Amino acid sequence: ETNILPYVSNPLVVAIITSNSPINGRTIEYITPSCRVVSSLGVGFDNIDVKACRQRNITVCYVPDYGTNEVADHAVALLFAAHRRLS
User: Fold this and answer.
1) Which residue among 4, 6, 49, 62 is least crowded, i.e. fewest CB within 10 A of its CB?
2) Whether the model pTM is above 0.85
3) Residue 45 CB partners (closer than 8 Å, separation 6+)
4) What is the pLDDT of residues 6-52, one digit of tens each?
5) For residues 46 and 68, what is the distance between their CA atoms, to the nearest angstrom?
6) CA distance linking residue 69 with residue 44, whole number of Å
7) Where is the D-isomer specific 2-hydroxyacid dehydrogenase catalytic domain (predicted)?
């Protein structure tokens, strides 16, 4: 958390895009007023305090279908490998 605080308080920040860094209430207190969006690069957004973002009028986004095709392709490839007894 502390390693992103200098970046989120920069007045030029208009969006924060994260994959696993927690964006909790304390972090949101440091976010500059120019920031309008916090986005998660993944299916979930458990690492983002949505309530605190709403209080600051910050939109929260995520990618609900991130990697779904790739995961399905990998699962089928593993089934083929198991069927062929490959390692």
Assistant:
1) 6
2) no
3) 60, 62
4) 888 888 889 998 888 889 988 888 888 889 999 998 888 899 999 99
5) 19
6) 17
7) 14-75
CA dihedral 44, 45, 46, 51 (to 10 degrees): -150
What the block records as the tokens of 74 is: 């990998």
Residue 66 belongs to a domain with what CATH number? 3.40.50.720
Two tokens, residue 2: 């502390």
Three-state SS for the chain is CCCCHHHHCCCCCCEEEECCCCECHHHHHHCCCCCCEEEECCCCCCCECHHHHHHCCCEEEECCCCCHHHHHHHHHHHHHHHHCCCC
Host domain of residue 49? 5-83
The radius of gyration of the chain's CA atoms, rounded to the nearest angstrom, is 18
From CA 78, how far away is CA 34, in angstroms rounded? 46
